[in-house]
Design goal:
Layout: E1 3-4, E2 13-19, E3 23-29, E4 37-42, E5 46-48, E6 51-54, H1 56-69, H2 71-74, E7 77-84, E8 90-92, E9 102-103, H3 111-121, H4 125-128, H5 139-149, H6 151-156, E10 159-161, H7 163-172, E11 176-177, H8 195-200, E12 210-211, E13 217-220, H9 223-228, E14 236-238, E15 241-242, H10 243-250, E16 259-263, E17 267-273, E18 284-286, E19 294-299, H11 304-314, H12 318-327, E20 335-337, E21 355-357, H13 365-391, E22 397-402, H14 408-418, E23 421-425, H15 430-444, H16 447-454, E24 458-461, H17 465-494
Parallel strand pairs: 2-7, 7-15, 11-12, 16-22, 22-23
Antiparallel strand pairs: 1-4, 2-3, 3-4, 5-6, 6-9, 8-10, 13-14, 16-17, 17-19, 18-19, 20-21, 23-24
Helix pairs in contact: 3-5, 10-15, 11-12, 11-13, 12-13, 12-14, 13-14, 14-17, 15-16
């Protein structure tokens, strides 16, 4: 249920809406107070084998519910900002009706198609304008898979949208996306549809929506959205950014060069820098054509998901697991490779699986809880070090955001795995705050002003010498275990 802070309601509010994987979230902010109310509606994900789908109409229903139960606040909203999960494929007709389920970022059915794309096009920089791994989760592979398996979808589809853009279409009546959310459909440098790629995967370039920057307006709430959702008509709505970019914005990553970790079901990890690396290798690179600073980053496959899995295995709650793992004082814990559902950055291996290494008779529930938390963080560290290597930078601190990023128990774990100072923003939902900042930017016309007006307090924790020594010693064990696992997979594949 909604939670109010303070007795007085502001007269002019900005509203951030994030269409996530597990829920649609709303955050009402007033610049002077920086917080009025947050609310959310849970979403379902249908998983069968490698498939991961959602019903796009549930996104609309969730927003209807959020507006209905917060109508008094909605009437004071002067701008709406959007963000959402990517890469997801939502096919719609010219009226906005879905022509297929939403194939969300966790869907990995397009493995063969991803390999075919890699063989056909090679280095993605030449065609996509950035280092976009030819992964099964990426939009080009998903579109290729649809054309091979459901050709009738193509005949009925007018546009390919992301969840935030699907919502934006129904609020404003315009099919618009930002170039980074539509990467793989468009070249992120030229901001033009990739004719050659789209033709190869069986689609016409006309399915690519209009492109604009995430902080720009996609239009205003329409009379239809006023009737359908309950928004006042004539309110500007942002084009919006991906959930990753929105969170980066709210953490100050786009205001100054730094390394960062943003946690959720998975984690977004990377480094911002003034200039893009020449080659992002196995990481994404958001170029300065899409962002105030270049951002080299990668999404891991499991963060909160691995916590849920281990809690279920140990027959304890997630809260109990985190408490046990963060306070375990044993001399050592097993080494956990958190690849229970494959891995994205930096390995991009859907065939790799998790592993617990170096288990002995002294280990107990707390040891395993600690192992899974540290394993998640070791995987994050690997992405940070790879992003810094590519950008030829080093950050003395790591900025933390997201639910786990705002948890002091996780902070203690990351101190002893990263071995660096940590800057923690005291907001569990930094992504939706970023969406609200995008809303405010349509008013201020200044990204920096919006960030400083709506950002929350940040707290610094310095790493101790013991943290640094533990981090460096045990990270080597993690990398060694990972290399052994990859070698085994390679040998098995050669048989």
């Amino acid at each position: 249920m909604p939670r109010f802070v303070g007795a007085k309601l502001a007269r002019q509010l900005v509203l951030g809406i994030d269409v996530g994987t597990s829920s649609v979230k709303a955050l009402f902010l007033e610049p002077s107070s920086k917080f009025i109310l947050r609310d959310e509606i849970k979403l379902k994900v249908t998983r069968v084998g490698k498939a991961a789908e959602q019903d796009p109409l549930e996104y609309l229903s969730a927003v209807q519910q959020l507006v209905r139960r917060n109508q008094e606040l909605v009437s004071d909203v002067i701008a709406i900002g959007l963000s959402g999960q990517t890469p997801t494929v939502i096919c719609i007709d010219n009226k906005g009706n879905p022509t297929s389920p939403a194939l969300i970022w966790q869907d990995s059915r397009a493995e063969r198609e991803a390999k075919d794309l890699a063989e056909r096009f090679g280095n993605p920089i030449k065609i996509v304008g950035t280092s976009l791994p030819w992964a099964a989760s990426a939009c080009p592979a998903k579109l290729f898979w649809l054309s091979r398996n459901f050709p009738d979808v193509i005949a009925n589809t007018r546009w390919i949208l992301q969840p935030k853009d699907f919502l934006g279409f129904h609020i404003t009546g315009r099919a618009i996306s930002d170039p980074w959310s539509s990467k793989g459909l468009c070249n992120v440098q030229t901001l033009e549809p990739i004719d050659q790629l789209l033709e190869y995967v069986g689609w016409d370039k006309e399915v690519v929506p209009e492109l604009a920057m995430g902080y720009e307006s996609r239009g205003e709430t329409s009379d239809y959205s006023a009737d359908h959702f309950g928004f006042p008509s004539g309110i500007p709505v942002s084009v919006g950014w991906s959930d990753a970019m929105s969170a980066m914005f709210a953490l100050g990553v786009m205001q100054r060069p730094t390394s960062f970790i943003i946690t959720g079901t998975s984690a977004i990890v990377g480094t911002s820098s003034p200039n893009s690396p020449e080659d992002g290798a196995n990481l994404y690179v958001i170029p300065t054509s899409c962002s105030p600073l270049a951002v080299t980053y990668g999404p891991t496959q499991m963060s909160g998901g691995a916590i849920s899995w281990m809690a279920n295995v140990l027959k304890i709650s997630e809260e109990e697991l985190i408490s046990k793992g963060s306070t375990d004082q044993g001399d050592s814990a097993p080494t956990f490779l958190p690849y229970i559902s494959g891995e994205r950055a930096p390995l991009w291996r859907s065939d790799i699986r998790g592993r617990l290494v170096d288990i002995d008779i002294s280990h107990n529930q707390s040891s395993f809880a600690r192992a899974v938390m540290e394993g998640i963080s070791w995987a994050e560290r690997q992405v940070i070090e790879e992003s810094e290597r590519l950008t030829k930078t080093h950050s003395d601190e790591v900025v933390l955001g997201g639910h786990a990023g705002n948890d002091l128990r996780w902070e203690s774990v990351r101190a002893r795995t990263l071995g660096r100072s940590l800057l923690r923003y005291e907001d569990p939902d930094i992504t939706t705050r970023g969406a609200a900042m995008l809303a405010y930017t349509m008013i201020t016309k200044d990204l920096s002003k919006s960030f400083f007006s709506l950002s929350v307090e940040a707290v610094t924790k310095d790493a101790t010498q013991l943290d640094v020594e533990y981090a460096n010693r045990n990270y080597k064990k993690f990398i060694s275990s990972q290399e052994s696992l990859l070698s085994e997979i390679s040998r098995d594949g050669d048989k």
